[in-house]
Write a sequence for this structure.
């Protein structure tokens, strides 16, 4: 697998495409950890849960979440494996196909740019279209 280097200074603008689906993308709050971590473990893996824990413990929190009708449907983190790395990220199977994953990705990448990063690394990407 190959790593992808993303130029944060050439990001497309973050446009809210999720509110039309009733989905909110926002930075996670540290007190929400008790809700987020079990969800990540249940839908993805214990490994991603531990990475998400590291992102939530950062200041500022390096985890963004997607919610719909008050329910968690997705997450994205950065600076978990190493500084400058994006991921892990995931959206529940039932909520896929609405662009939520892309919105979470862009929320993280724009935040990384705001934190002073020039580039982000997406490790172990599969086929890229």
């Amino acid at each position: 697998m190959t790593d992808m280097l993303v130029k944060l200074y050439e990001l497309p603008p973050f446009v809210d495409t999720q509110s039309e689906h009733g989905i909110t993308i926002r930075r996670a709050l540290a007190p929400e950890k008790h809700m987020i971590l079990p969800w990540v473990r249940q839908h993805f893996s214990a490994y991603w849960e531990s990475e998400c824990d590291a992102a939530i413990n950062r200041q500022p929190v390096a985890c963004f979440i997607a919610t719909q009708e008050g329910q968690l449907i997705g997450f994205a983190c950065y600076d978990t494996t190493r500084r400058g790395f994006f991921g892990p990220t995931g959206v529940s199977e039932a909520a896929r196909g609405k662009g939520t994953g892309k919105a979470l990705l862009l929320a993280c990448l724009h935040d990384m740019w705001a934190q002073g990063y020039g580039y982000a690394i997406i490790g172990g990407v599969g086929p890229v279209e």
Remarks:
- The helical segments are 33-43, 46-56, 100-114.
- The radius of gyration is 14 Å.
- Residues 100-114 form the longest helix (15 residues).
